[in-house]
Design a protein that fits this description.
Residues 67-127 form the Complex 1 LYR protein domain. This is Complex 1 LYR protein domain-containing protein. It comes from Stephania cephalantha. One of its GO terms (biological process) is mitochondrial respiratory chain complex III assembly. The chain is an all-alpha fold. The chain has a domain at 56-152. It is 77% helix and 0% strand. It has five helices and no strands. It has helices spanning 2-27, 34-41, 51-80, 93-107, 114-152. Mean pLDDT is 77; it is low at 19-27.
Length: 153
């Protein structure tokens, strides 16, 4: 029994030491000097690469922006669930918003300029967030009016 206890203690101490080393490395992955900090966070001049490397980096940027665009589109679809009332013509706002979002994404589908794509993605995220914030605010106002109507009775 004593033999197993010693084995367990040595095993735990080895695991602790290895975890301490891992955590030590994770805790100090930051820059050691101010120069290193500035080097990491200051925008550098673009280096000229050969056409193959440029093409690979452009493909990587497009892949990441496609992923972002898909994520944004899914967020739009999720956000439009809450717009369940009809407009003057009897069409649900949810359907109108989804149709407009689809048109926007289709028109920007073949855009190649990374800066324009990024600007569109940021604007789209802001629009979704603004619409949801306004929806929440309106819902809070209606809840307050509902509670005020109940209190008057």
């Amino acid at each position: 029994m004593e033999k197993w206890r010693n084995f367990a203690v040595s095993l735990n101490s080895n695991i602790f030491r290895s975890n301490a080393v891992i955590h030590g490395k994770l805790l100090h992955n930051g820059p050691d000097t101010v120069e290193e900090l500035l080097e990491r966070h200051v925008v550098k001049k673009e280096k000229s690469y050969n056409s193959d490397e440029d093409e690979i980096s452009a493909d990587q940027c497009l892949t990441s922006t496609r992923r972002e665009a898909l994520s944004l589109y899914r967020d739009v679809i999720r956000a439009t669930r809450f717009f369940s009332w009809p407009n003057d013509r009897g069409v649900l706002w949810r359907d109108i918003l989804r149709e407009n979002a689809r048109k926007e994404f289709e028109t920007a589908r073949f855009e190649k300029d990374y800066k324009i794509i990024t600007r569109l993605l940021i604007g789209g995220r802001d629009s979704v967030q603004t619409a949801l914030d306004k929806l929440v605010e309106k819902h809070k106002q209606q809840m307050a009016q509902g509670h005020a109507g109940v209190d008057r009775r």
